[in-house]
Design brief:
It is built from 13 helices and 6 strands. It is mainly alpha-helical. The strands form 3 sheets. Strands 1-2 form a two-stranded antiparallel sheet. It has a two-stranded antiparallel ribbon with strand order 3-6. It has a two-stranded antiparallel sheet with strand order 4-5. α2 packs antiparallel against α9 and α2 packs across α10. The termini are close together.
């Protein structure tokens, strides 16, 4: 996978690949929550889009709080991306404290409701630009050295963020924390009886997933120099569910393959116009019938090897 994204710009449009890596990281963060924690969030778009707004605003306008006499110049790209991820993590902590006490469909509905509140906040708040969003976001220079205005500077940066985020999720999944998380997913009552504080583990998983989704959203905002409403809309939450299911729920590489498959269909079938939705629907039906565990899930079953 790393080799593919390292050499793919020789044949594939780099901007498309950067979008794939951002959404692959988003799907991996979502998979950490549902695939290993068993928690279905219908509101993960609020972390992706919210972090995008924070990083875009800070990179373009800086931070000014007149009441505190605080006036900071526009942030550098690394600080803007980091600020977006931290903001998503804080938002994840607040949402997690409210939602984690419920399970199943109730948990999903609470996350969806809170995500819709974030969406309407982004519509109404003056600094988000309303329906126009925040446009012409400057990419700047990474650490004051690497010019991100060209694909030659931006692509390696996105690649490094994606690989770093992916390896972090891989380490989390295969750590003692990840094992406890899977135990809670399989049988929460038994995990509690063994002495584990299930709510605390689920809350930490939710915050980690939100922060990593925010990292993806902040990076995506700088790549396209735009923070827009579609990133916080509920359809984006549905799209990441689709990416994860197509690739393989609970697999390490599944969300990456799912993101690549879904975005490739959107990009290369766009010429079909209104028929693209029908074509996508037919392809998804075939995937569901032929690959019930997702593409990577079925491949792992055939190889009898975890992927």
């Amino acid at each position: 996978m790393i080799a593919f994204f390292a050499i793919a710009p020789m044949w594939i449009y780099p901007v498309f690949l950067m979008k794939v890596m951002c959404f692959a990281l988003f799907a991996c963060a979502f998979n950490l929550l549902i695939g290993y924690g068993g928690l279905l969030s219908f509101g993960h778009a609020m972390f992706l889009g919210g972090a995008g707004y924070v990083s875009a605003y800070l990179a373009k306008e800086g931070l000014a709080i007149p009441a505190l006499g605080l006036a900071l110049p526009p942030f550098t790209p690394e600080l803007a991306i980091l600020s977006g991820a931290v903001a998503a993590g804080v938002l994840g902590l607040v949402v997690g404290l409210l939602a984690i006490r419920r399970q199943g469909i109730y948990f999903a509905m609470i996350t969806l409701a809170l995500a819709q509140m974030v969406y309407f906040f982004c519509v109404q708040a003056p600094f988000t630009g309303g329906e126009d969003g925040i446009q012409a976001v400057p990419r700047g220079k990474l650490f004051g050295l690497v010019d991100l205005s060209t694909p030659a500077g931006m692509y390696p940066t996105v690649f490094a963020i994606f690989v770093g985020g992916f390896l972090l999720i891989y380490r989390i999944v295969h750590s003692p924390f990840g094992q406890v998380l899977k135990a809670i997913r399989e049988n929460e009552s038994r995990a509690i009886s063994l002495g584990y504080d299930a709510d605390r583990y689920k809350l930490l998983a939710f915050v980690l997933s939100a922060a990593l989704a925010g990292l993806a959203g902040a990076t995506n905002a700088l790549v396209f120099q735009l923070a827009a409403l579609n990133a916080v809309h509920w359809t984006m939450s549905g799209e990441v569910v689709l990416m994860t299911l197509v690739g393989g729920l609970g697999t390490v590489f599944g969300p990456v393959v799912g993101a690549l498959a879904v975005l490739a269909m959107e990009n290369y079938l766009a010429q079909l116009g209104q028929w693209v939705s029908i074509a996508q629907g037919l392809i998804f039906i075939v995937c569901v019938l032929a690959f019930r565990r997702g593409i990577v899930g079925e491949l792992a079953r055939w190889l009898n090897k975890p992927l």
